Description:
By secondary structure, this protein is α+β, with helices and mostly antiparallel strands. The protein has two domains: 1-40, no CATH class; 44-76, no CATH class. It contains four helices and four strands, in the order ααββαββα. It starts with a helix and ends with a helix. The relative contact order is 0.14.
Amino acid sequence: MIDALSILPDQAAREIEAEWLAERGTVRVADEVIVDLMTVAANGETYDSLRPHILKQEKDGFAYYILDIDSLIKTK
């Protein structure tokens, strides 16, 4: 995640330590765009319970993964 965020113009993401990120659970990175990183899911959901709801999207030759809308609502 840190490598992916390093493409943002602000260099703050490069200062994030992986251990700190893992302990936090949720982090908001406010740069040119706002990115919410969740290393743990909310409301009792886990990666395994959400895995069937992951959607692969592609834009400009890059693939990224998002949750379907129902799962996003469950984790809020």
